[in-house]
Amino acid sequence: MSVLSVAGITAGYGRMDIIRDIDIDIPSGGRVALVGSNGAGKSTIVKTINGLIPARRGTISWDGREIGRTKASERTREGIATVPEGRLLFPECTVVENLVAASTFKRAKALRERTLEYVFDLFPRLSERAGQRAGTLSGGEQQMVTIGRALMTCPRLLILDEPSIGLAPRVVEEIFSVLGRLTETGLSLLLVEQNIQLSLRSVDYAYVLQRGELVKQGPSGALMDDPQVRAAYLGT
Ligand SMILES: Nc1ncnc2c1ncn2[C@@H]1O[C@H](COP(=O)(O)OP(=O)(O)OP(=O)(O)O)[C@@H](O)[C@H]1O
Ligand SMILES: [Mg+2]
């Protein structure tokens, strides 16, 4: 059973359609990647799924229910959380304040203490820096706070928009090893990345986006062995 099913969506800005006829399926508890190079339209798909921009055509189903016309805040409440591109957090607030501020919905509020413990268990470094202002953290630690903020909403689907960008390989390893643990609780993941090699190692199934259109999809193992994918993205 799919938790999220996107069918035939088209969206864009002004008069321009940026993404066209996109179909994406995320199984419950599944790990799915959306990969594509700079400017392919990945973030536009993310914003269409989380409700920041409207789909001009097509449907978005959540648990089999059409949510394409609901507000972004309603989708967060329903369990769709996004780790946005560029690590948006409150730089003047402490780590713990940033985390707590994300759990304002009724369901998330009730589970706040437990979720906070869970986030600190996933990222012990955040626990050590709980009282530190978020703006003074390293890039990797800020990414951990951003992921933590998304988790504080108690999501069922976590969308990560380019979590690896600008981070040292060692920090990327650290963050991705945590992502592997997240689905143990039944959470579904949509990993959005330019780094196709890293993505394919981290998910079960992937979609390849090129200039606003999906050009390939399949189990990550098959895509890794695909000669076209290898030539275009893996440099082999
Ligand atoms: N708010 C906006 N208004 C107008 N055009 C936009 C806007 N945001 C993005 N675009 C354009 O839409 C296209 C796709 O952008 P998008 O951010 O979805 O790509 P992306 O795959 O996420 O790229 P990146 O890897 O750089 O994050 C680009 O040509 C971009 O210039
Ligand atoms: Mg983007």
Plain-language structure description:
The protein has helices at 42-50, 72-78, 95-101, 106-110, 112-122, 124-128, 139-151, 169-182, 196-202, 220-225, 227-234, and strands spanning 2-13, 16-27, 31-35, 57-62, 65-66, 80-83, 157-161, 188-193, 205-210, 213-219. The chain is α/β, with parallel strands linked by helices. The strands form two sheets. Strands 6-7-8-3-9-10 form a six-stranded mixed sheet, sandwiched between helices. Helix 3 (95-101) runs parallel beside helix 7. The structure holds adenosine-5'-triphosphate and magnesium ion (MG). Adenosine-5'-triphosphate (ATP) binds next to helix 1.
Which structural traits does this protein have?
236 residues, alpha/beta, Rossmann fold, 6-stranded mixed beta sheet, 4-stranded antiparallel beta sheet, 11 helices, 10 strands, globular, binds adenosine-5'-triphosphate, binds magnesium ion
Give the topology, please.
Elements: E1 2-13, E2 16-27, E3 31-35, H1 42-50, E4 57-62, E5 65-66, H2 72-78, E6 80-83, H3 95-101, H4 106-110, H5 112-122, H6 124-128, H7 139-151, E7 157-161, H8 169-182, E8 188-193, H9 196-202, E9 205-210, E10 213-219, H10 220-225, H11 227-234
Parallel strand pairs: 3-8, 3-9, 6-7, 7-8
Antiparallel strand pairs: 1-2, 1-4, 4-5, 9-10
H/E element sequence: EEEHEEHEHHHHHEHEHEEHH
Query: Helix share of residues?
Result: 25-40%
Please tell me what the overall shape is.
Answer: globular
Query: How many β strands by DSSP?
Result: 10
Question: What is the top-level CATH class of the domain at 1-79 and 188-236?
Answer: Alpha Beta
Q: Which structural class do the helices and strands define?
A: alpha/beta
CATH architecture annotation of the domain at 1-79 and 188-236 = 3-Layer(aba) Sandwich
In which order are the strands of the major sheet placed? 6-7-8-3-9-10
> Residue ranges: pLDDT <50 for 5 or more in a row?
none
For this structure, the CATH topology of the domain at 1-79 and 188-236 is Rossmann fold
CATH superfamily of the domain at 1-79 and 188-236: P-loop containing nucleotide triphosphate hydrolases
